[in-house]
Amino acid sequence: MRLRSTSTAIALAMMALGAPAWADMEAAKAFLDAEIGDMSALTRAEQEAEMQWFIDAAKPFAGMDIKVVSETITTHEYESKVLAAAFSKITGINLTHDLIGEGDVVEKLQTQMQSGENIYDAYINDSDLIGTHWRYKQARNLTDWMAGDGAAVTNPNLDLEDFIGLKFTTAPDGKLYQLPDQQFANLYWFRYDWFNDAKTKEDFQAKYGYELGVPLNWSAYEDIAEFFTGRDMSYAGGPTSVFGNMDYGKKDPSLGWRYTDAWMSMAGMGDKGEPNGLPVDEWGVRVDENSRPVGSCVARGGATNDAAAVYAITKSIDWLQKYAPPEAAGMVFGEAGPVPAQGNIAQQMFWYTAFTADMVKPGLPVMNEDGTPKWRMAPSPHGAYWQEGTKVGYQDVGSWTLMESTPVDRAQAAWLYAQFVTSKTVDVKKAHTGLTFIRESTIQHQSFTDRAPQLGGLVEFYRSPARVAWSPTGTNIPDYPKMAQLWWQNIGDAMSGDKTPQEALDALCAEQEKVLERLERAGVQGDMGPKMNEEKDPQEWLDAPGAPVAMLENEKPQGETISYDELIKSWQ
Length: 572
Fold this sequence. Notes:
GO terms for molecular function: transmembrane transporter activity. This is ABC transporter substrate-binding protein. By secondary structure, the chain is of the alpha+beta class. The chain is 42% helix and 10% strand. It folds into three domains: 4-177 and 396-437, 3-Layer(aba) Sandwich (D-Maltodextrin-Binding Protein, domain 2); 185-250 and 324-389, no CATH class; 253-310 and 472-543, no CATH class.
């Protein structure tokens, strides 16, 4: 082994610096034996070679104390508790991975942007901030970083092409600003066992005139919600009364995520485009040909308050009141998430795959004795305004971000950790723990073929071409931290009944435009910042092709469904 001849000297030097004395291949081998095994896309020899690269690249940073931060989800808990400790032992860099709330991560990041103080050496924050990072230029663009200051600490086996979410972290300038660490989608969740029960299917067909199945449109979702609500499912092993919908409605920041996270575009608000609508995105914000935001309200060509947006809010309130448990209206995101696992919910349109790990625990009412789930996940249905090519769902990509205010050597050390926890050596094992896929090689790993029957469609979805249509907030949003908080405050007014959906959305788009106008006046984003359109008669925009759109005569077309098993076959 190449380092053995000098291991004593290195150990003494590292101890003097306060670093672990066992930062060598022996520590790496112990980690691979105890934690990774064959749960890797790499062979054991390839794993050891990758670990040797980290050992060599980390030498200049031995003994440094580095701090990184992320939100608290299962994937990051594994990184913080297991991978950070292994990284420290293997490299000699003292790595602390803090876990805090999602909102707190954004707040810390915002504080570092405003003050220039280096609070953390790296952040895992949602790629929803890609438009913010690109315009403010306070996050290092990783394309230039990997060719410049970060070249010596960039893993030759990083294999960017293997990451499935890079298009979400790439700005209009073609540069990569964030490296994906975890991602999950919002999908449709339903009780596969009930939907395939003969009596249930017969009763639904008799009442609605079409087959019970995965809803393709909101009309079918609404019919299914009505059908199941209050229904006695004890003949199929369920409770004597169930609900046809699950959601949440408390005035809380998480209420805003539910709408910025593609509920509007699922309804049909916004333009066609991949991964996000252009020129009008899933927030209803329009940009010009230079990607500069020009408006949010219909009078400026935006769609935040158009008929499709109003329809989206109206339907969610209606379904929450009629078909969800009464307590759901007072719940936040985290409280509502575990409810379907309790066994009395028939379907949920807005369900995050991040809940999968908690939905497959043995003994739950939604699990079979053989370890397979009674439920499945599928693409969410789309609303009456939706057209082929419009965004159909949200996919969160929590990604590593290096700030310009972080000293180069600290950023280099943190970048090593970011690559370690996303490396091919560890990613398969990490994905089995948190079920948040980032690499194609992990998705295709044999262990996930073996485990797929226990995960309710998660593997099938991520192996399908359907996944590319799910995406985070796009680059139309120039200041995510400022604009995101407007959503829950205004939509909360509609949820509480203080305002009609139209009134709430009129207020929301007006407040978004105030932020855009302030950014334009300040000029802090240069020729990438907002350049607002003049207001004109909204009808001119409604008559033009694309978003915004006028109200349809019929917002409830015939319901359409598809057999889940047919859907899966179409993916294969």
